[in-house]
Amino acid sequence: MNAPHPELVLTEEVAQALNDGTPIVALESTIISHGMPFPQNVEMATEVERIIREEGAVPATIAVLAGRPRIGLDGDDLHLLATSPDISKISTRDLAYTVSKGHHGATTVASTMRLAALAGIPVFVTGGIGGVHRGAERSYDVSADLTELSRTNVAVISAGVKSILDIGLTLESLETLGVPVVAYGTDEFPAFFSRISGHTAPMTLGTPAEIAAMMAAKWRLGLSGGVAIVNPIPEADEIPAAEINVIIDQALADMDAKGIRGKDATPFLLGRIVEITNGASLTANIALVNNNARLGAQVAREFAAL
Ligand code: PSU
Ligand code: MN
User: Fold this and answer.
1) 36-62: per-residue pLDDT in tens?
2) Residue closest to 52 by CA, chosen among 292, 302, 303, 305
3) Which helix (H) or strand (E) is 75 found in, with range?
């Protein structure tokens, strides 16, 4: 194992795991600071780490705190991310600014991938990835998560994308960028709250070992960039597409009426959906993140064993 990158601050547990070749699962922090309300956000962050340990891997939640990229956080750090108003949402473009100013930042899928890669962690678990927003032909709002998936060698396990995005255009864009999209145990591309999106997944794999083998094959071939592994929400926790899509349309209309755009769009929509569903969407969101954490730890174990 090479020495850790000098800009990164690793916890003892993560440093040890990197040194020993113990499987590690990276986790993002925008989902904590801007994706869920307090206290469910910190409870979710803690539970996800517990699940990953239970599955025999080491969790590494990633954020920038006081200008230092942190790989692995303690309970106080998670609490700060969950409660402080001084935590910006930072994507790849924001990393250098946040570090040079000594600020705090909650990392998105894009910036978490980048920091995970810098630390040498190839598996990353989240809830949903960003994508092509509805109306992107006018707004140009396409998440930097897609750009990062095209260039950074990290596998990202999510529950797909919710229909706040244009799912069809997101899949087209990932194809153009050369990013394999692999659905776990289903032919259907999952739509976050629901197992059904109406779009067929480009590829299907049925076991964590098969997923690990595909990641290894990709990188052996010198095909740089990530792998999007999409894991459908468990049936028991699903909100049917017909039900959630009406709510999402409402949230999108509210966003347009308020003129909210850019990096504030996704956090606004997530918060508004929680409000309109009286918290039902939050329960589903937590369930799917836990489900992804289990799969991610299993994939990390299989990949580490190769
Ligand atoms: N989708 C979710 N929950 C989230 C996010 C997306 O269901 O918390 C967050 C992730 O951090 C993702 C980011 O990387 O939003 C995408 O933001 P944008 O669309 O501004 O790129
Ligand atoms: Mn955007």
Assistant:
1) 999 999 999 999 999 999 999 999 999
2) 292
3) helix 75-83
Please, is 3 exposed, middle or buried when counting C-beta atoms within 10 Å of its C-beta (0-12, 13-18, 19+)? exposed
- The pTM (predicted TM-score) of the whole model is 0.98
Among all bound ligands, the one having the nearest atom to the CA of 262 is: 2
Atom of ligand 1 nearest to the CA of 34: 8
Report all structural domains of the chain as residue ranges with CATH numbers, in order of start.
9-305 (3.40.1790.10)
Tell me the CA–centroid distance for residue 35 and ligand 2, in Å: 14
Q: Which of 248, 266, 282 to mutate to test the pocket of ligand 1 (most atoms within 8 A of CB)?
A: 266
Q: What's the pLDDT score for residue 36?
A: 96
DSSP 269-282: HHHHHHHHTTTHHH
Q: Is residue 28 annotated as part of the catalytic site, yes or no?
A: yes
The pLDDT value recorded for residue 70 is 98
